[in-house]
Design goal:
Strand 5, helix 4 and strand 6 form a beta-alpha-beta unit. The longest helix is centred in the middle third of the chain and has 11 residues. By secondary structure, this protein is α/β, with parallel strands linked by helices. The protein is built from 4 helices and 13 strands. The protein starts with a strand and ends in a 5-residue tail after the last strand.
Length: 210
């Protein structure tokens, strides 16, 4: 099952929902849903960014409201991801996870590293962020000239192989902290990245409307 989670950052890329999507709003992400005319199945968090009348209207329409105290060990977004996992989701599209606060943005970008059971994709305008774990292959659809950057997390990334990129890799090592994997370029409409060991962040920038 796919979950679509609206966070409280800047929403730059509304998405076409599928009929069986599980829609979750993390605290202030509720306003993105309301602005788009979307009724989330779940609103979760300490809810300090949502008015009581908004919560009452959503609850009356069937939305489940899950309230946590302000003093807690997890961010509202992490709570939303854990709730999605609890409800059986194995794929997540994460919207509005980036914004002006660098600490929150970095924490949101790295959240998928803590939840290996979920396949999480972050979407922001024409940019996508994916995570690869050992043995996984990411298939990328885009256009010639789109940017693909590979960033190792939690140490070196080994056995990295790419296909369809201007600067190919063949079972090579990307060192943690190195910029070697930044700003590769798609040669056609399809490309792929395969990881042998470690954890790899793959950022895709689409430079033209598809």
């Amino acid at each position: 099952m796919r979950a679509v989670i609206f966070a409280n950052g800047q929403l730059t890329r509304p998405i076409l929902l599928q009929p069986d999507d599980l829609v979750i709003a993390a605290n202030g992400g509720t306003h993105h849903c309301l602005g788009l005319g979307i009724r989330p199945q779940v609103v979760i968090g300490d809810l300090d960014s949502v008015r009581e009348d908004e919560l009452e209207a959503l609850s009356a329409s069937g939305t489940q409201i899950i309230t946590y105290p302000e003093r807690k060990d997890f961010t509202d977004l992490e709570l939303a991801l854990l709730e999605a996992q609890k409800r059986g989701a194995d794929r997540v599209l994460l919207l509005a996870a980036l914004g002006r606060r660098w600490d929150q943005s970095l924490a949101n970008i790295l959240l998928p590293a803590a939840l290996p059971e979920l396949k999480i994709t972050l979407l922001d305008d024409q940019q996508e962020i994916h995570f690869l774990r050992p043995g996984e292959t990411l298939e990328i659809t885009g256009q010639p000239g789109d940017t693909v950057s590979l960033i190792p997390l939690s140490g070196d990334a080994g056995g990295v192989s790419t296909h369809g990129l201007e600067y190919p890799l063949h079972r090579e090592m990307l060192r943690f902290g190195s910029t070697r994997g930044i700003s590769n370029v798609m040669l056609g409409n399809q490309a792929s990245v395969k990881l042998g060991a470690g954890l790899l962040l793959c950022a895709v920038i689409h430079h033209m409307e598809r």
